[in-house]
Design brief:
Blueprint: H1 5-21, E1 27-34, E2 39-46, E3 62-64, H2 70-82, H3 111-115, H4 125-128, H5 136-144, H6 161-175, H7 179-188, E4 210-213, E5 219-222, H8 231-234, E6 237-239, H9 240-251, H10 265-271, E7 276-277, E8 287-290, E9 295-299, E10 303-312, E11 315-322, E12 327-333, H11 341-355, H12 366-383, H13 396-403, H14 406-411, H15 414-422, E13 443-450, E14 453-461, E15 469-476
Antiparallel strand pairs: 1-2, 1-12, 3-6, 4-5, 7-8, 8-9, 9-10, 10-11, 11-12, 13-14, 14-15
Length: about 475
């Protein structure tokens, strides 16, 4: 990744410094990391606390990351799934028997549905953000009173913190230890995330203080809530440096060289795929939805972008990474629901554009290129008289059997294909085909000239060795009008 520091300095000043000046938060920190999790750039603005002793936060200042914690909860669930301790399609009542819908509905959400925010529960941010210190017994008492059903489980996206608190209970039951102990022992410690934990006190380095702004415009410091049954929804306290390492570990699952770690690359990929779609009007987003503990956006201009926001009393957080460009951004602010996702998203979009790193087309396999060239020669043979031999001396019949899978002739007889090609008035190819970009390495398209205009050719390869063409289409190019 090659980014000039003046570009980043100017962009972060514009996007973040102005927010402090406008009074959206007392302080903030932003950090850009590469695919290894190392920080490429970081800056702090404002103050980590407004009382005496406040200083400008940096990449080693800890903040509450709120719902960014959910990626840790989802990862812990999949880790237990991979070990055979639970199954994602188990009902939550296998682990939390107290849960039931208050309307008497017999169907309850599965772990998979809770992970993807489609468990039939309603959105609950303001209420849930104040429930963290509940003990397990207190939480179970709430559940025994019943839970309202918003929708049929598995049908509708609703952002539910309660669902992730339930997952925390399932993690504890399946692992035989507490949620916090399991995440700490199995994820934080193996990855060396020494600045990450579930308590603000007793940790190394400085910790930012959260604030809210009162009616007079004065910043009021807020106390940290203690860990408890709702910690799985947003309880982690960490630094930009540590969170960047976590994000890079997850993002590495989508690369050909994933980092080693406690969660398999396959499970990391599973976290970062859309499991429940969400409508989006953001420019450039063609696919949008919730994975497991992560939001996912895909589009030609933005590629595959993954992240999550966090809002808690006193804090706002956002992490986001782009798979194609191999970078990500972490942003923190120390004000209630300040919305730091806005400048972080804008910065990621700018960097993607700066690098020209939107969705990347696949590089065709060598076999795809070879078969495309052979198909182009076959088309020339079909366009000519049936008795004409190719320049190589091989008949078209010989080339057909060499490069075409048997299904091609079964789908449309070769005689019909020959006749159709002869009717196009193709001009003999004077050079090898210029293959166009494709989303799959097994697909190739190119244009041929004819007496009546361009003709598009497309091949796709069958999933066999040696490679053979399974589809071959040759038709006039449609007008753009």
């Amino acid at each position: 990744m090659s980014l000039d520091l003046p570009f980043l300095d100017a962009a972060t000043t514009e996007l973040f410094a102005s927010r402090i000046e406008r009074g959206l938060a007392p302080g903030s920190v932003v950090a850009l990391f590469d695919g290894s999790g190392e920080l490429h750039f970081s800056r702090g603005f404002g103050l980590d606390r407004v009382d005496e002793g406040g200083t400008t936060p940096d990449a080693d200042t800890a903040f509450r990351i709120a719902s960014c914690t959910k990626s840790f909860t989802a990862a812990a669930t999949l880790l237990l799934r991979d070990r055979g301790a639970l199954v994602l399609d188990q009902p939550i009542t296998d682990f939390v028997p107290e849960f039931h819908f208050s309307d008497g509905s017999p169907e309850v959400p599965t772990l998979r549905q809770l992970l993807s925010m489609s468990g039939g529960l309603s959105t609950d941010d303001p209420w849930a953000d104040r429930q963290e210190p509940l003990t397990d017994d207190e939480f179970r008492a709430v559940l025994r009173a019943g839970t309202p059903r918003d929708s049929t489980p598995g049908t509708t996206f609703r952002y539910s913190n309660l669902g992730y608190a339930l997952l925390g209970q399932a993690i504890a039951a399946a692992s035989g230890t507490s949620y916090i102990e399991f995440v700490t022992r199995e994820l934080l410690e193996p990855l060396g995330l020494t600045a990450t934990g579930f308590r603000a006190e007793g940790r190394p380095g400085r910790t930012a203080v959260g604030h809210r702004r009162d009616a007079s415009g004065t910043w009021r410091a807020l106390p940290f809530s203690g860990p408890g049954a709702f910690s799985p929804i947003g309880g982690i306290v960490t630094t930009a440096r540590d969170l960047a390492r976590w994000a890079a570990f997850l993002a590495g699952g989508l690369t050909d060289s994933p980092q080693a770690g406690p969660l398999s690359p396959a499970s990391r990929r599973e976290l970062q795929q859309v499991h429940r779609t969400i409508p989006s009007d953001r420019v450039g987003v063609e696919e949008n939805g919730y994975g497991f503990g992560l939001m996912v956006e895909k589009g030609r201009s933005i590629g595959h972008t993954v992240g999550h926001s966090g809002g808690y009393p006193g804090f706002s957080a956002h992490l986001r990474w782009n798979v194609q460009a191999g970078f990500g951004v972490v942003g923190f602010e120390n004000a209630t629901y300040a919305g730091v996702s806005t400048p972080v998203t804008a910065l990621v979009d700018r960097v993607i554009e700066h690098l020209g790193a939107g969705a990347q087309d696949a590089k065709p396999w060598a076999e795809t290129v070879t078969l495309a060239r052979a198909a182009d020669r076959l088309i020339d043979a079909w366009a000519a008289d049936a008795s004409t031999e190719l320049s190589t001396g091989a008949s078209s019949d010989g080339l057909e059997s060499e490069i075409l899978s048997p299904n091609v002739a079964l789908d449309v007889p070769i005689a019909e294909r020959r006749a159709a090609v002869r009717g196009l008035g193709l001009v003999a190819a004077g050079e090898e085909p210029r293959l166009e970009a494709s989303a799959s390495p097994a697909v190739a398209t190119w244009l041929r000239e004819s007496t009546s205009g361009p003709v598009r050719v497309r091949i796709s390869l069958a999933p066999i060795v040696p490679a053979r063409i399974q589809t071959l289409t040759i038709c006039p190019e449609k007008s753009a009008e």
